[in-house]
Design a protein that fits this description.
heterodimer; A: 162 residues; alpha/beta; Rossmann fold; two-stranded antiparallel sheet; 5 helices; globular; B: 157 residues; mainly alpha; Four Helix Bundle (Hemerythrin (Met), subunit A); 6 helices; 2% strand
Amino acid sequence: MSDYNLSQLKVLIADDSKLMRQLVRSLLEVVGITRFAEASDGQKAWDQAVTFNPDLVVTDWNMPPTSGLDFVRRLRTDRLSANPFVPVIMITGYTEEYRVVEARDTGITEFIAKPLTANSLYDRLRAVVEDNRQFVKAPSYFGPDRRRGRREAYTGQDRRAG
Amino acid sequence: MAKADIVRPTKHIRERVGRTGGVPLDQALAKANQVVAELAGSENTELDQFGRLLREALAKAATAPQAARPALFNAAHEIRGQAATFGLPLAGETADALCKFLDKRPQLDAGDLPFITVHAQAIDAVIRQRLTGDGGVIGAELQRLLAKAREKRLGAG
């Protein structure tokens, strides 16, 4: 992660497990982050996102009654969203490939399959800081370009404008 | 083809990050591993609660397997994420296998019960006894036998 100074970041942590929220928060405190908001489901996370305006969101997927995916979808597309471009790291027990694709198609920035380790979290944190992807706006999608690093290589007729 | 536009983000997390002056990665990792170890050693009542939910779902499955499926999956799903993160990878791996089994069996019937039961009981035993680590030779043998049982059932589908 180099030695990026992360002390100015505001981070929203959404997870129905208090212990997981505590773990994520503690790991982020280790790298100098001090400003946090927490939420235990997707609706509360949305409320926090509107008022706290985080620079980074770390969210679980399965947190009834409102899922992490619904929360991310709203973050990206609701006109009340304070920052539709906010990077989102999703940490989840889902490991099946179709689930990863589903999360990607909702607009998450990075995905971590549990078990959560310090290495995996810091690696994704570095990735979002260094992420140079543009966003894509389509009828059914708004989020980071899902074609990581492949845009320049493709010159066919289906290449997107811009 | 549907139209898609490229949008340049008007805000980026980098604007709030200093290029230098942070905590060096090796120091951060050393401290972080300490944090994880401390949390793993603390009393994990959530994991006990998920273990209880799994037992309740299993009891319900004995008479109504399909009705119990969502509760079985949810409990196993929570356990697979938490157990491995907090030092019980054997429970995490077994819960992951149970989730994948349930994923492949959208309609449960009585024939699935023995397979679900052995997975749930193994998970419950690991959690209750706080069996840390992967279980060594016994853990590997347990996983091998469970995998064999799953393959047999899914093959018979």
